[in-house]
Amino acid sequence: MRYAVLVTGPAGAGKSTFSTSFMTHLRMSKRSANIVNLDPAATGDAFEYEPAIDIRELISLEDVMNEMGYGPNGGLVYCFEYLLQHIDWLDEELGGFDDDYLIIDCPGQIELYTHHPFLPSLVRHLTRMGIRTCGVYLLESQFMEDKYKFFSGVLTAMSAMVNLEVPWINIMSKMDLITSNPDNSSGGPRNGRRTRKDIARYLDPDPLLIVPLGRESPNTNPRFHALNQAIVQLIEDHPLVSFLPLDLTSPDSLETVVSHIDFTMQYGEDEEPKEPHDMDEGDFADME
Ligand SMILES: Nc1nc2c(ncn2[C@@H]2O[C@H](COP(=O)(O)OP(=O)(O)OP(=O)(O)O)[C@@H](O)[C@H]2O)c(=O)[nH]1
Ligand SMILES: [Mg+2]
């Protein structure tokens, strides 16, 4: 059985860093894994592990921009169109990996996740090839500094999840920036130490964060208030998004995230048809 984890999320969310740590973790657990670079704009030395498959070998953003006169975003769209038109290239590259685990590091343009058809097409293609695929969406912990920014992140995650139609895990990355800052507890909301309870309201998004007690302050524009109300309603009615915290400075944290990914993809079920014994109901309750 082959597996692929699509590592997605906005620019700078920590996708490449997570992909590398994930890879190290799998190798240390004696599991064979490979990195696939799907970012045609990635810079040469960005990878600790040489990607086994690299879209830049098919097409590079730089060439597209130079030769076709596109800007970076139009260029990216062109690269993905090109990839889908030359999907046999990918098939050939994938042919070499039987029984393997692919970590697919994606670009950071969120429109790629929310409304372009490329990633859904790619996922369908992987599925047709018998590769069991799941998506992870990284949102970085800085989004927790501003409630409105945070909810826009939640809505984007939701939209990506609905668009891609594969088993899905949302991750709050860079938690080290939130939890390991005890000296700054008086430093205002930017660097303030957060209580577990406060963090929990973000990991399992509490829509009342943006409309405390159901009403905004009197000088809020009523339209903005109405929009917030609508978002609160949406998230209350469809609580699709919750985040697993990821602190790469803690091996346990990475381990937990990897266990969730394995569980979501039913990793190893064909090989060993039994329940993963290190995970039970209680573990999930803890996390939520
Ligand atoms: N403190 C902290 N910084 C991190 C963490 N992960 C990544 N970073 C930093 O965040 C920046 C972006 O990380 P990348 O891994 O390149 O993010 P990305 O999502 O791949 O970025 P794009 O591919 O450009 O969209 C880098 O400066 C990293 O060093 C983390 O867990 N904690
Ligand atoms: Mg990257």
UniProtKB/TrEMBL annotation:
Belongs to the GPN-loop GTPase family. This is GPN-loop GTPase 3. GO terms for molecular function: GTP binding; GTPase activity. It comes from the Eukaryota. The keyword Nucleotide-binding applies. Pfam families: ATP_bind_1. Small GTPase required for proper nuclear import of RNA polymerase II and III (RNAPII and RNAPIII). May act at an RNAP assembly step prior to nuclear import. SUPFAM superfamilies: P-loop containing nucleoside triphosphate hydrolases (SSF52540). Keywords: GTP-binding, Hydrolase, Nucleotide-binding. Residues 267-288 are annotated as: Disordered. Heterodimers with GPN1 or GPN2. Binds to RNA polymerase II (RNAPII). InterPro entries: Gpn, Gpn3, P-loop_NTPase.
